[in-house]
Amino acid sequence: MASHGVPRTSAPTERTPQAQAAELQKIQEYKDLVELVNTKIRQREYTADTLALISKLLKRNPEYYSIWNHRRLVLQQLFSDAQQAAQIKQPITSSNDTTSHPESTPDNATTDAAPATHPTQYPASEQIELLLISDLHFLVPLLREFPKCYWIWNHRQWLLQQATHLLPVPRVRRLWQEELGLVAKMLSMDSRNFHGWGYRRRVVAELESPELQGTSMAEDEFSYTTKMIKTSLSNFSAWHYRSKLIPRLLNERGASREERRKFLDSEFNLIQNALWTDSADQSLWFYHAFLMSELSTTPSTSSSSSSSSPSTSSSSAIIPDLSPTERVALLSRELDNIKEMLEDEDEDDTDTAPAERKYIYHALVQSTLEKQKWIRAVEAHAEPKAIADDKDEVQSWISKLRALDPFRMGRWDDVARQVDDLYA
Amino acid sequence: MDSLSGTFWDVVIAGTGLQQSLLALSLSRSGKKVLHADKNRYYGGFEAAFTLQEAEEWLNKGDEDSPLRPFRKASSVPQASLDGSNKAPKLSARAYSLALSPQLLYARSSLLQALISSKVYRQLEFLAVGSWWIYVPRDRSETGEALTSSHGELKKVPNGREDIFSDDLIDLRSKRSLMKFLKFVADYENMSEVWSDYASIPFSEFLRSRFGISMSLQAPLLALTLSPVSPSETPTSFALPRIARHLRSMGVFGPGFGAVLPKWGGGAEIAQVACRACAVGGGVYVLDEGISDVSNAPADQGEMPGQVGSSAHHPVAVTLSSGETVNTLWLVGSPDDIPKKSGTTRSGNEPESPTREEVTSKSISIVSSPLTGLFPQTAEAGPVPAGAVVVFPPETLLTEEKVAENQPPVYIMVHSSDSGECPSGQCILYSSVFISGDEGQATLDLAVNRLLSSLGEDPKSCLLWSMRYSQQGPSLHSGVVSSCEERSPGQIFFPRSSNGLAFDDELLNNVKCAYEKIVGSDNEDSSFMAFSDREVPTSYMSDEE
């Protein structure tokens, strides 16, 4: 299984007789450990000792997801132990405190905690914080070794959620902030790991949330995608994240129509630059397709769009109110750019890989069909001659596609029918 | 020390240069009795690294021919500080470790594999060699000013697709051409139909006519070849494997770089670590002891004690410079360490080997500032490199309006203080050009000056100290004569180390060739340099800490 050249880690394959004997020994130890942990859980021994056993087991096999549930059970018990211990001590000191701060409730330790007012709650939250931090640290070497194991990420997220419930805001923020650093480090080691990218989005969402008194990080995150793309053009996750950030970014900037237009152009420049550098890279064509889709919302919806309610309509698009004429102009420009890539290609140019030419022809066909739709939307009486020229060209591209990728004959037949319908 | 006189050895190795030291390492677990001698007081031979004081001593010996071979005409120049006070700052001599032949190691080099499989890598530390820079003169018509202060600037050589993507100065069409070329190089061995017709034609011509790559974009590609000679003398068959080596090494040890340098003096450090491994295995080391004579051992000593006639030839009697004579089955060294025939030490001028040897002018300069701009981080969260390569294409160094058709380029390897070769706040420039004599040194001076002025550091960087010398080595260009040569029974000769800027894997092949002659080639292939970990008594290591 090849996933962008970074394989999911599996057990070592080399086996000498000694290694085999050692492995059998290991398996027995492992089985004993599993048995021991399960017994402890059955007996509801949710103690620090059990936690240590669970750690030992998970280091050997982090894919055993039930054990992660056990771990959470034990941790929850340890949290509430810490809270109870604190509450027992509470009456001793809080008797004179409660009168001056009537709004504070002893059972809600999380929301507002100023050091001077709730001295007795600190041991509890500090103890919980220690437990959480040590568990977060426990996961780091595991993540290094098994970066693609779901349960580790899962557990990590659970720990941080617990922090949000149980700790004062500044401390939670600090934990999440450190989390962002960790994700950046992981992504620098394996920049296309989509677990890492997904996790980053969650961390950012958390840091942005009102619960943590956060503000939008769209600008920073957008710059981050630029940086990661410059590190590896093939980073589809980075391109994808970028496409998701753009609408929010523009809204938060309060971008004018003019600015949005400039923005769209600069994104097209970026992707053209990338495509001219390496048109064989599928990630780039995906982002190109995303930008093209911004030009090709179906004519019926956009014709009725009004600028009176930008807040509702602009949430999904770079430029919500592109006129059909503008769309045709932009589509033509892109068509010319892509055509130019073909210009210095020989028919049987061995330097250009078949995949590369396929992407180009495919983009040409799609863009032309889109353009034709919009031409029809602009004026009902499009010049028949121009259309006919176009049609020949499109059909020649489709026949190229048939030759380059015969396994998708059905798809090309379908595209050919679309062409026939459109020019009929 | 006890007298060596009359002792018997399986192998006597003469000289502690990289090849000899690696041979010693490869024999460290063979059970062979090894005597390893060096005529110098220091380890490393051509690859030695010196403190300032050692460098001065070495330079002062410069006129006695033999100790300096293959180095010639060396001199040092303490530089007055440029602020006019004329008081050169006092340099702490022991804070430096200046390498005579610094070489970078590509990540895919077989030497790195050998250092790992032989377990000695744990005693070495490797640092990234980051950016390649190319010197580009400013358009003269555009600046009417004199060529003094800022004659040109350094441009980063694109290291691959992302660099090409990010370079705003390359137009879209050229990006496409460059990428096509890079993709071709990645698999050039299987695409001989593209380049076989151009193999002996200059590489620049191949780039132009086959890939439509313009002059200005050829220079960075030529820089990656590290070719010592002019573009017109650099054929396609020479350039392609080297560019492929560069690109294939990129990212192996981390994003954004493809080569490393060993900390604390490069090859010298590897040589010392290799010798140490041989000493741990029982090898005996003698420094300051050259070989003055070689002859056949007397017939009555033809059979070595404890040896079951494993060798087809008579032992060799080796006389050391102390006058002691030892007997050995094998004597291995470079032509500079072993006298050719009985009773003569060789004079410098006679032709020594069938290999064409050529002279490279070199200089080492200590710079008063760290030149941080040359060492950008290799990638997001990647390491900060300790080495950089600056290339001056031939046309950028023409002093007069003379037409020098075959002017070679100048290479300057810049090592930051992270390399352990100088104190922090300074850096070292290792410059070389394939021109001999005063002209060579003048060209190097010009390049060094232009490098410093192009960086425009404030306060202006200046040279604190520099030394000049020239080095003889096998021509990189006439096809390296590889392997080891057995000129007479039991005597194995290594060719001199090349003057190349990157470690040449052929050198390791020479070592393997000698190893197989000594151990027997029927020995399993994998045993060469493949060792398991061994328990080292701590007492062995204590003096190295």
From TrEMBL, chain A:
<dbReference type="GO" id="GO:0005968">
    <property type="term" value="C:Rab-protein geranylgeranyltransferase complex"/>
</dbReference>
<keyword id="KW-0677">Repeat</keyword>
<feature type="compositionally biased region" description="Low complexity">
    <location>
        <begin position="298"/>
        <end position="316"/>
    </location>
</feature>
<feature type="region of interest" description="Disordered">
    <location>
        <begin position="298"/>
        <end position="319"/>
    </location>
</feature>
<dbReference type="InterPro" id="IPR002088">
    <property type="entry name" value="Prenyl_trans_a"/>
</dbReference>
<keyword id="KW-0637">Prenyltransferase</keyword>
<protein>
    <recommendedName>
        <fullName>Geranylgeranyl transferase type-2 subunit alpha</fullName>
        <ecNumber>2.5.1.60</ecNumber>
    </recommendedName>
</protein>
<comment type="similarity">
    <text>Belongs to the protein prenyltransferase subunit alpha family.</text>
</comment>
<feature type="compositionally biased region" description="Polar residues">
    <location>
        <begin position="89"/>
        <end position="103"/>
    </location>
</feature>
<dbReference type="Pfam" id="PF01239">
    <property type="entry name" value="PPTA"/>
</dbReference>
<dbReference type="GO" id="GO:0004663">
    <property type="term" value="F:Rab geranylgeranyltransferase activity"/>
</dbReference>
<keyword id="KW-0808">Transferase</keyword>
<feature type="region of interest" description="Disordered">
    <location>
        <begin position="89"/>
        <end position="119"/>
    </location>
</feature>
<dbReference type="GO" id="GO:0097354">
    <property type="term" value="P:prenylation"/>
</dbReference>
<comment type="function">
    <text>Catalyzes the transfer of a geranyl-geranyl moiety from geranyl-geranyl pyrophosphate to cysteines occuring in specific C-terminal amino acid sequences.</text>
</comment>
<feature type="compositionally biased region" description="Low complexity">
    <location>
        <begin position="105"/>
        <end position="119"/>
    </location>
</feature>
From TrEMBL, chain B:
<dbReference type="Pfam" id="PF00996">
    <property type="entry name" value="GDI"/>
</dbReference>
<dbReference type="GO" id="GO:0016192">
    <property type="term" value="P:vesicle-mediated transport"/>
</dbReference>
<feature type="compositionally biased region" description="Polar residues">
    <location>
        <begin position="342"/>
        <end position="352"/>
    </location>
</feature>
<dbReference type="InterPro" id="IPR017230">
    <property type="entry name" value="Mrs6"/>
</dbReference>
<feature type="region of interest" description="Disordered">
    <location>
        <begin position="63"/>
        <end position="87"/>
    </location>
</feature>
<comment type="similarity">
    <text>Belongs to the Rab GDI family.</text>
</comment>
<dbReference type="GO" id="GO:0007264">
    <property type="term" value="P:small GTPase-mediated signal transduction"/>
</dbReference>
<dbReference type="GO" id="GO:0005829">
    <property type="term" value="C:cytosol"/>
</dbReference>
<dbReference type="GO" id="GO:0005092">
    <property type="term" value="F:GDP-dissociation inhibitor activity"/>
</dbReference>
<dbReference type="InterPro" id="IPR018203">
    <property type="entry name" value="GDP_dissociation_inhibitor"/>
</dbReference>
<dbReference type="InterPro" id="IPR036188">
    <property type="entry name" value="FAD/NAD-bd_sf"/>
</dbReference>
<feature type="region of interest" description="Disordered">
    <location>
        <begin position="332"/>
        <end position="362"/>
    </location>
</feature>
<protein>
    <recommendedName>
        <fullName>Rab proteins geranylgeranyltransferase</fullName>
    </recommendedName>
</protein>
<dbReference type="GO" id="GO:0005634">
    <property type="term" value="C:nucleus"/>
</dbReference>
<dbReference type="GO" id="GO:0005968">
    <property type="term" value="C:Rab-protein geranylgeranyltransferase complex"/>
</dbReference>
